[in-house]
Amino acid sequence: MRILEAPVVSPLSSEAEAAIDAIIAKKLKELEEENANKVEEAHEYKKNEQVSEAAVASVKYETKDIGEEAQAAFIKRAYDAVVSYNAKEAKAVADEAVAAGADLLSLIQKGYTEGINAVGAKYEAKEVFLPQMMASAKAMDVGMEVLSPYIGSSSDSEGLGKIVMCTIEGDIHSIGKDIAAILMKVAGFEVINLGKDVLVTDIVQAVIDNDAVAVGTSALMTSKMINQKTLEDALRSAGIREGLVTNVGGAPVTQGWADEIGADIYAETATEAANKMASAMVD
């Protein structure tokens, strides 16, 4: 089990995160139009379209000792690419880091993620505006596309089983959840990422279909938090709650809320979520 130390916290408002999600949604739509012959219903559950992180990481990756100076240079370039809205450079950094054997998790946390958080803080302070926010998100996205298949592929962690992750029904925010999904993979989980605005019934079905050992849901909107409780109730009704570890997170979520609805774990950051869930599997 790999312990993750650096916290990953997003300071973005709902509006800012929604803008970033729009970039990702557009890219997914383009891929769907290229590869699908029909448009699926908005909430239709398809097992073969779940994002299985284990399947994506088909290429083994070996982290090498490239030296602190070289690693720091990659991190700075990634950060600068995101804060300067340079998607071409963001991809180039990722490609070169993979070729060099750099520490990709550190690159994501200290480079790309800190970059998007810095732009988000400027957006909140009205120092930059929506076009810049979206351009920054695109830069981060293209870098992550390169790195994601390799994250966790060299992990020496014992397999912890499958975890189903999503943003809860009615909520369209996904950045924090997607970062958490990457870190869950690093910790040793096989991640089934269902995306955002996922029906409670679809989450339950995904747990059954994948024989999952854990479920993680995120809610950024206070009005949609209730669906985390609905999920807990639905898992019990389906007779699969016992033995399943559930995690809840998101800006308005608290330990008190987790206790109230019967969730096993509450985490304030993506790093904390990965560490707590991994620990729960080995206890």
3D structure, described in words:
There is one protein chain. The protein has 283 residues and is an alpha/beta fold. The protein folds into two domains: 14-41 and 55-150, Methionine synthase domain (Methyltransferase, Methionine Synthase (B12-binding Domains), Chain A, domain 1), CATH 1.10.1240; 162-282, Cobalamin-binding domain (Rossmann fold), CATH 3.40.50. The protein is built from eleven helices and six strands. The protein has helices spanning 14-35, 53-56, 68-83, 87-100, 104-124, 130-147, 175-187, 200-210, 226-237, 255-261, 270-282; strands at 51-52, 162-167, 190-193, 214-218, 245-249, 265-266. A six-stranded mixed sheet has the order 1-3-2-4-5-6, sandwiched between helices. Helix 9 links the parallel strand 4 and strand 5 (245-249). The model is unreliable at 34-58 (pLDDT under 50).
Per-chain topology:
Blueprint: H1 14-35, E1 51-52, H2 53-56, H3 68-83, H4 87-100, H5 104-124, H6 130-147, E2 162-167, H7 175-187, E3 190-193, H8 200-210, E4 214-218, H9 226-237, E5 245-249, H10 255-261, E6 265-266, H11 270-282
Parallel strand pairs: 2-3, 2-4, 4-5, 5-6
Antiparallel strand pairs: 1-3
Structure at a glance:
The chain has 283 residues and is of the alpha/beta class. The protein has helices at residues 14-35, 53-56, 68-83, 87-100, 104-124, 130-147, 175-187, 200-210, 226-237, 255-261, 270-282; strands spanning 51-52, 162-167, 190-193, 214-218, 245-249, 265-266. It contains eleven helices and six strands.
